[in-house]
Amino acid sequence: MATRVYIGRLSYRASERDIEHFFRGYGRIRDIVLKNGFGFV
């Protein structure tokens, strides 16, 4: 079962690599979608 997590108030300079590094300890990351100031993992 896949779950998508909303991440708000991100820096506009946050990269997919930054997000992957932060969340990798919680399990396998299937997809990262970044927009201006927010994203989904």
UniProtKB/TrEMBL annotation:
Q: Does the keyword RNA-binding apply?
A: yes
GO cellular component assignments: nucleus
User: Where does the record say this protein resides?
Assistant: Nucleus
Annotated RRM domain ranges read 3-41
Q: Which SUPFAM superfamilies match?
A: RNA-binding domain, RBD
Among InterPro entries, the record links this protein to: Nucleotide-bd_a/b_plait_sf, RBD_domain_sf, RRM_dom
What are the protein's GO molecular function terms? RNA binding
- Which UniProt keywords are given for this protein, alphabetically ordered? Nucleus, RNA-binding
The principal localisation class reads: nucleus
Write down what this protein is called. RRM domain-containing protein
What species is this protein from?
A: Cylicostephanus goldi
Starting at the broadest rank, the lineage of the source organism is: Eukaryota, Metazoa, Ecdysozoa, Nematoda, Chromadorea
